[in-house]
Amino acid sequence: MVHKKESESEPRFYGLTRTASAVLTHLISFSFTVFITLLSRPGTSWFSWHPFLMTLAFGFLMTEAILVFSPHGSFIKKLSHKTKGRVHWILQCLCVFCAVLGLAAIFYNKHLNGKAHFTTGHGVLGLLTVCVVAAQSLAAAPLIYHSLAKGWSLAKLKRYHAASGLITYLLGSCSLLLGLCSAWFTESVGEYTWYLSALCPALGTLIIMNQVSSAYIAKKRLQS
Ligand code: HEM
Hints:
With 224 residues, the chain is mostly helical. The chain has a single domain (2-223), classed as Four Helix Bundle (Hemerythrin (Met), subunit A), CATH 1.20.120. Helix content is 81%, strand content 0%. The protein is built from eight helices and no strands. Helix 2 (46-67) runs antiparallel to helix 3 and helix 3 (81-112) runs antiparallel to helix 4. Bound molecules: protoporphyrin IX containing FE (HEM).
């Protein structure tokens, strides 16, 4: 009797934990983006567009694009997988659009100030991140137009897309974190605010990685 109760409460407990993690990720993606927007005040200078657009791209749009598939925290949980896929690629296209604009803004700002390009770890990793997210989105085209990848099963394409997507997300979070280490940000906020801000991409990444890997482990278990 006791055993039965325990085994019943366990999945429920895990379900609640996963729901709480997904809700936390929504809160983080929204509040972190709002905070950077208020701090950078987009439109006040060419530079101001850079932190705003990059946080919108990677902190908000890419995070929400993945959370669409969360079985516990998706806003469109009840809709079909096909619809979720459509919302996912629209958010991902917006992410690439904002990332390219964010890169153009900082590039032009440096050009105006006669500064050298891609001289910091953040600059180099950031450039790589924008290239990878653009390539990842292009490489996802066969998931919609399957005829583009003859000889590849849809299941295999989806597996590769999820794995490379996780790497892209990780790159985005590392670039955001390095952006938070920039002189502009460290001089704009106090110590506690800095740690709290750095916690946002770090925690978001852990939860997102857990969501995607759990989904694929569960699928593998069903197949074997
Ligand atoms: C994933 C998000 C981000 C990416 C991909 C990214 C990308 C880049 C790139 C490529 C550069 C160099 C441009 C050049 O040298 O011409 C740069 C510079 C810069 N970024 Fe970001 N950025 C991101 C987020 C942020 C955030 C959130 C901040 C501020 C909180 C920030 C602050 C800066 C600053 C101050 C510079 C100029 C100094 C430097 O080159 O390191 N970035 N970023």
